């Protein structure tokens, strides 16, 4: 379900972790929780709704790791996590 392609697509948001954020956003907006139950994406993630695919929860974890790596001083040598 990954839709962001770093070389071909250009995101307006050029901040770090923007690709993961875009993928997470699209994953949540296409889930049944948002479409059928009319909940916000935040409510769907916080309630651990069964209609949200596991891919969205994996993207959430990846997004967290990417944001955390921005604060970690070791990333000067290792680089940011994510894509």
The averaged pLDDT comes out at: 78
Give the biggest beta sheet: none
Strands, total number = 0
Q: Assign the structural class, choosing from mainly alpha, mainly beta, alpha/beta, alpha+beta, or little secondary structure.
A: mainly alpha
Subunit organisation of the chains: single chain
Series of H and E elements: HHHHH
**How much helix, percentage-wise, in residues?**
40-55%
> What is the count of DSSP helices, taking H or I runs of 4+ residues?
5
Q: Which residue ranges are poorly predicted, with pLDDT under 50 across at least 5 consecutive positions?
A: none
Radius of gyration: 14 Å
Which geometry do the CA atoms define?
elongated
Task: Assess the beta-strand content as a share of residues.
Answer: under 5%
How many angstroms does the end-to-end distance come to?
A: 15 Å
Organism: Zootermopsis nevadensis (Dampwood termite)
Family: Belongs to the PET191 family.
Pfam families: Pet191_N (PF10203)
Function: Involved in an early step of the mitochondrial complex IV assembly process.
What would you say this structure looks like, in words?
By secondary structure, the chain is an all-alpha fold. It is 53% helix and 0% strand. The longest helix is centred in the last third of the chain and has 18 residues, at 54-71.
Summary tags:
mainly alpha, 83 residues, disulfide bond, Cytochrome c oxidase assembly factor 5, Cyt_c_oxidase_assmbl_Pet191, 0% strand
């Amino acid at each position: 379900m990954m839709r962001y392609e770093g070389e071909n697509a250009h995101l307006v948001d050029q901040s770090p972790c923007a690709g993961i954020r875009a993928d997470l956003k699209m994953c949540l907006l296409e889930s049944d929780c948002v479409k059928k139950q009319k909940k916000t994406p935040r409510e769907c993630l916080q309630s651990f709704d069964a209609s949200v695919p596991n891919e969205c929860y994996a993207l959430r974890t990846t997004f967290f790791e990417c944001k955390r790596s921005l604060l970690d001083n070791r990333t000067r040598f290792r680089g940011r996590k994510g894509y």
